[in-house]
């Protein structure tokens, strides 16, 4: 990806970024922000500049994206900072921190709810009915037990995604209709014209949370995983949450 493409992506990230906490910046950080912001292109707003503890770099946060620059804003570094001694990916950890949400703030009444077994392990997932990776992930979930899944139908991939979601939401058994479509390819019956859905509100929510692809999986600790997970990765994540270790 070249710099122009990266800046275009950053502009989109800014559009859907969430408001962050206002933190006092040092004079040096303020000066770097003034220098670097106009160099990122029209429409790109720098949310914060923070000195990092490694290599004299300054973190430049744009929405949920992280870039780096030097103390004179002369060079721009795009990519991951990795500790060669430990293998720790500082950039990924920082992005995960920025992208954290408060799970209890999710409007779960706008989601489908499926409970299996004791339901103690809880996730929320944003899925498009036309998403192949979502269908693969749904197969994975079908084989798991002791889990509660809140599914937000997030229609971003095709014009008829909204229609499919409406038909499913308006079905007598929404959960069954969703699984029938996602797992078995069975289309839900047409919804009554007067049936009201949360489709638009879910779309707004997804934009607010900066969800640009499906599936997007959220865990009770507020962390997210973009993309499908296999059963092994999902079990490892749940184990890390139970032990209190970040993963």
Automatic annotation (TrEMBL):
It comes from the Bacteria. Residues 24-91 form the Disulphide bond isomerase DsbC/G N-terminal domain. SUPFAM superfamilies: DsbC/DsbG N-terminal domain-like, Thioredoxin-like. Keywords: Disulfide bond, Periplasm, Redox-active center, Signal. CDD domains: DsbA_DsbC_DsbG. InterPro entries: DiS-bond_Isoase_DsbC/G, DiS-bond_isomerase_DsbC/G_N, DiS-bond_isomerase_DsbC/G_N_sf, Thiol:disulfide_interchange, Thioredoxin-like_fold, Thioredoxin-like_sf, Thioredoxin_CS. It is found in: Periplasm. One of its GO terms (cellular component) is periplasmic space. Residues 115-236 form the Thioredoxin-like fold domain. Its main location: periplasm. Belongs to the thioredoxin family. DsbC subfamily. Required for disulfide bond formation in some periplasmic proteins. Acts by transferring its disulfide bond to other proteins and is reduced in the process. This is Thiol:disulfide interchange protein. It comes from Undibacterium jejuense. The lineage of its organism: Bacteria, Pseudomonadati, Pseudomonadota, Betaproteobacteria, Burkholderiales.
